[in-house]
DNA sequence: GTCCCGACTTGAGATGACCTAA
DNA sequence: TTAGGTCATCTCAAGTCGGGAC
């Protein structure tokens, strides 16, 4: 793996306010073959100003420390912009080209599959084709969204069986006609041996009836194949039987129940279709990675078989696990929208009551010591804690705080304290800092005691019982009071978030459960029994008047199931994406403005993974997404840096993270944008005939369950798969493989504009790492010299000298390996400094892609997912085999 | 069609536990 | 053993989206 670190542009600067650097140029250089769109993004202009100052300071330092590092900030240097733009264009074009190629490949694959399927259909009995017809007719049902109860499933099964029976009868008639056979094939026999015998008989019959040599040959090989598969199947059955009996012996409440059912009557057809695991009937799910043909009960979707490929028992068992978890979810699903039937928990944990600060900690107003009332002191403490934070340098924050603080003051305090700038919180600040320090420096025993206390609370309040399963709760602690930390230029930042009491809390649990007890002297606002929602408790916070919830942990069944569904929807989009793209491209030419706007917006959402962009209230930070873009957020350039029809996006997105991107678009999009901008001011909506609900309504018509958000998930997962394919070299070392994974992950994070502030001390740690690398290189040089000398000695020397030579050689080898590891670490860390990988990993990347990659290339899953992530993605770890494709 | 709200997911920053090298 | 750095976990703000009321 070539490590890219020269010619990489670097954004310098950082500040405690969390200003971001940007290293996309680096990403693109590092991954010239097919990185996604590059964004330069930063926080608000306000922060940019800070950053510019900081950057100037750092720039000289950076320049000295490394001539390779180049300043890159969109607004500060047009030259830099130009340079990056050219990087971007080539990379983007390539990326787009790759995507197109990939799509073409996918199409080819699909065609190939289709052809194979067709061949199979011709070869096999008509019962299979009847199934395919069913498949087609029910393709709309493919969405596992539509859950079904056991009874309904049974009914549907019955129906299917009846239909199958009819087909079989027809088939038998045809067979009779074809072969003149009087043998009646009993398709309903449950005995597998009989089926196999009949299969052989049928093969024999075919063999006899054939007169051409070619046909004979084919028949013979088919028979051989069939026999070979039968042998495998028998072996598998033995394995399964053994495993099943073992499973029955050790029934674990948390283990998924095995409810895969035998479907003997269709076995002839299935075997004829050259499937090796046909006796298993999947209830629901799309398992297109499986090379075994499964029939899905509620959807009747058949998964095509990968020809001539056999799977090990181990692989099949992992597939079976997949089926188990899918089945378990499906079995427990309810039709009426209810999420549970039984829910019991202990209620939330409240923030500890306020403890007054010691009397030696003073507050001064206008230079005079002042003893505050308890409530005023508590709120003053919130501010004092944040004294060294950027927030307290902002007027809005200070004004909001002061207004709310005065509300909790006594009349006397109100009369005295009239100017925030005259308040001195320094002593209080020092006290809180000291407390934090003391907390950090607790002895081992004290820390252990604290840990045990927390664990006890977690044990008591951190779990709930939901439909017989013990599940972890995500956030069982009520948010403590404090000052509201709105992001960006939030007009409400600094307002007081008041203490939440039991009287604010709505408890949700089942009637039959033990209702949690409110703290002594208090009572709940309400106890509700609403099984249509998943939250356990809720309250309305006072700053934005929003409802806050206590919900389940991501590792819970309910959340996991939702997650799985999300990725399945994205996979369905993968199937329809070409059609959708064709359609929106057609719509660029529509006579109706609203349709053109919708089509152009959709193009941006698809191409750039933009968020939908709901409208926002006046009392929220001014951030936008695609639908809420304003004219001032884009610039059109017919020519820019040698490229045609360039759109420059520059706006604040979610969390006031700046999105900056220069994108060459198709001419028709460009002309449309010109049209949309005609006679509009900067503050006018770009898409004035569009909003998220119109867009999503349209998307749902294109594909059930499709919303703007799905494009982000789809493009992220698709990019990961594509990047992993491109970047992974099976012969790489483990650390190099992980670097490849991180680079693929990074490509997605860049696509989704997931940025982070440069970690504190990043530069220092990089310098240290560089020193280490230099030292290692020096050590290698020395070792090489020693090896040479030892080699000379060993040539005519004794055994001892030869041993020394061998040892030196080994040492050299070890040093070289260590150097590679360090270099990989350096590249990875530097490329990662402004990119947050976590968000995409947790929310956008189908975990089965990563799991499959790990299994395929022998990378321990722990290297990719930490414990929490493994818990969250347990379903995927169990499901995905090494050949899973998104 | 629009507005509003509830329920959920997504997201960055803060905090603190843990690991590693000296 | 300890300091310093990294990474996992926690926190809570800020999105998306669907549905109901008008």
UniProtKB/TrEMBL annotation:
One of its GO terms (cellular component) is nucleolus. Residues 483-858 form the DNA topoisomerase I eukaryotic-type domain. Residues 1-255 are annotated as: Disordered. It catalyses: ATP-independent breakage of single-stranded DNA, followed by passage and rejoining. The keyword Coiled coil applies. It comes from the Eukaryota. Pfam families: Topo_C_assoc (PF14370), Topoisom_I (PF01028), Topoisom_I_N (PF02919). Residues 45-83, 90-249 have a biased composition (Basic and acidic residues). Keywords: Coiled coil, DNA-binding, Isomerase, Topoisomerase. Its EC number is 5.6.2.1. GO terms for biological process: chromosome segregation; DNA replication; DNA topological change. It is an enzyme of class 5 (isomerase). Residues 433-460, 766-832 form a coiled coil. The active site is at 844 (o-(3'-phospho-dna)-tyrosine intermediate). Residues 8-17 have a biased composition (Polar residues). Releases the supercoiling and torsional tension of DNA introduced during the DNA replication and transcription by transiently cleaving and rejoining one strand of the DNA duplex. Introduces a single-strand break via transesterification at the specific target site 5'-[CT]CCTTp site in duplex DNA. The scissile phosphodiester is attacked by the catalytic tyrosine of the enzyme, resulting in the formation of a DNA-(3'-phosphotyrosyl)-enzyme intermediate and the expulsion of a 5'-OH DNA strand. The free DNA strand then undergoes passage around the unbroken strand thus removing DNA supercoils. This is DNA topoisomerase I. It comes from Ignelater luminosus.
């Amino acid at each position: 793996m070539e490590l890219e670190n020269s010619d990489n542009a670097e954004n310098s600067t950082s500040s405690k306010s969390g200003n971001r650097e940007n290293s996309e140029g680096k990403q693109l250089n590092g991954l010239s073959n097919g990185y996604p769109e590059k964004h330069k993004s930063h926080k608000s202009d306000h922060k940019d100003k800070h950053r510019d100052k900081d950057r100037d300071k750092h720039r000289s330092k950076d320049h000295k420390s490394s001539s390779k590092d180049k300043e890159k900030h969109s607004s500060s240097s047009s030259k830099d912009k130009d340079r990056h733009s050219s990087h971007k264009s080539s990379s983007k074009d390539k990326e787009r080209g790759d995507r197109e190629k990939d799509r073409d490949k996918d199409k080819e694959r699909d065609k190939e599959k289709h052809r194979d399927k067709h061949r199979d259909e011709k070869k096999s009995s008509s019962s299979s084709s009847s199934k395919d017809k069913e498949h087609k007719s029910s393709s709309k049902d493919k969405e596992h969204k539509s859950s079904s109860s056991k009874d309904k499933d049974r009914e549907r099964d019955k129906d299917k069986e009846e239909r199958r029976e009819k087909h079989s009868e027809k088939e038998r008639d045809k067979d009779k006609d074809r072969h003149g056979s009087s043998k009646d094939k009993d398709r309903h026999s449950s005995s597998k041996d009989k089926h196999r015998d009949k299969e052989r008989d049928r093969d024999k019959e075919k063999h006899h009836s054939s007169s051409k040599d070619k046909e004979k040959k084919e028949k013979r090989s088919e028979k051989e194949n069939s026999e070979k598969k039968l042998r495998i199947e028998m072996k598998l059955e033995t394995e399964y039987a053994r495993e099943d009996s073992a499973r029955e012996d050790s029934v674990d409440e948390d283990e998924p129940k095995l409810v895969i059912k035998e479907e003997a009557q269709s076995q002839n057809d299935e075997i004829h279709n050259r499937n090796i695991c046909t006796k298993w009937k999947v209830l629901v799910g799309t398992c297109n990675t499986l090379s075994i043909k499964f029939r899905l009960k509620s959807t009747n979707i058949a998964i095509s078989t990968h020809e001539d490929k056999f799977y090990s028992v181990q692989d099949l068992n992992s597939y079976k696990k997949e089926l188990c978890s899918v089945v378990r979810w499906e079995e427990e699903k309810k039709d009426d929208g209810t999420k549970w039937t039984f829910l019991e928990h202990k209620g939330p944990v409240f923030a500890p009551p306020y403890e007054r600060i010691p009397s030696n900690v003073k507050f001064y107003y206008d230079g005079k010591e002042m003893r505050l009332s308890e409530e005023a002191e508590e709120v003053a403490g919130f501010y004092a804690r944040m004294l060294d934070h950027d927030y307290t340098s902002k007027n809005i924050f200070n004004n909001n705080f002061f207004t709310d603080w005065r509300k909790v003051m006594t009349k006397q305090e109100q009369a005295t304290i009239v100017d925030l700038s005259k308040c001195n919180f320094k002593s209080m600040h020092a006290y809180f800092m000291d407390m934090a320090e003391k907390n950090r420096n607790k002895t081992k025993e004290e820390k252990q005691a604290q840990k045990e206390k927390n664990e006890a609370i977690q044990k008591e309040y951190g779990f709930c019982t939901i439909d017989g399963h013990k599940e972890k709760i995500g956030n069982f602690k009520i948010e403590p009071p404090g000052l509201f930390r709105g992001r960006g230029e939030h007009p409400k930042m600094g307002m007081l978030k008041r203490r939440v009491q039991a009287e604010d809390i709505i408890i949700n649990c089942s009637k039959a459960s033990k209702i949690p007890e409110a703290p002594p002297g208090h009572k709940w606002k309400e106890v509700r029994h609403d099984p249509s929602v998943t939250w356990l408790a809720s309250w309305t916070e006072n700053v934005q008047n929003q409802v806050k919830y206590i919900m389940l942990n991501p590792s819970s069944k309910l959340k996991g199931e939702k997650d799985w569904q999300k990725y399945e929807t994205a996979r369905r989009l993968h199937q329809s994406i070409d059609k959708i793209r064709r359609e929106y491209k057609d719509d660029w030419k529509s006579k109706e403005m609203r349709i053109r706007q919708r089509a152009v917006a959709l193009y941006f959402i698809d191409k750039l993974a933009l968020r939908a962009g709901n409208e926002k209230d006046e009392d929220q930070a001014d951030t936008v997404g695609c639908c809420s873009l304003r004219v001032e957020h884009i610039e059109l350039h017919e020519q820019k840096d040698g490229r045609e029809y360039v759109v420059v996006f520059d706006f604040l997105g979610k969390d006031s993270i700046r999105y900056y991107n220069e994108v060459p678009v198709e001419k028709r999009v460009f002309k449309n944008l010109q049209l949309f901008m005609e006679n509009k001011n900067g503050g006018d909506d770009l898409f004035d005939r569009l909003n998220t609900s119109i867009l999503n309504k349209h998307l749902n018509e294109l594909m059930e369950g499709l919303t703007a958000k799905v494009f982000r998930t789809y493009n992220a997962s698709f990019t990961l798969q594509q990047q992993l394919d491109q970047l992974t070299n099976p012969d790489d070392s483990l650390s190099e493989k992980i670097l490849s994974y991180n680079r693929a992950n990074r490509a997605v994070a860049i696509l989704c504009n997931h940025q982070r502030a440069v970690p504190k001390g990043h530069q220092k740690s990089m310098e240290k790492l560089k020193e280490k690398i230099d030292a290692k290189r020096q050590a290698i040089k020395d070792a090489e010299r020693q090896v040479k000398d030892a080699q000379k000695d060993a040539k005519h020397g004794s055994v001892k000298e030869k041993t020394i030579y061998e040892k030196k050689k080994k040492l050299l080898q070890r040093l070289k390996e260590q150097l590679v590891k360090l270099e990989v670490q350096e590249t990875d860390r530097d490329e990662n400094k402004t990119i947050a990988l976590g968000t995409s990993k947790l929310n956008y990347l189908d975990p089965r892609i990563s799991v499959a990659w790990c299994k395929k290339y022998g990378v321990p899953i722990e290297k990719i997912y930490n414990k929490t992530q493994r818990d969250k993605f347990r379903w995927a770890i169990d499901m995905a085999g090494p050949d899973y494709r998104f």
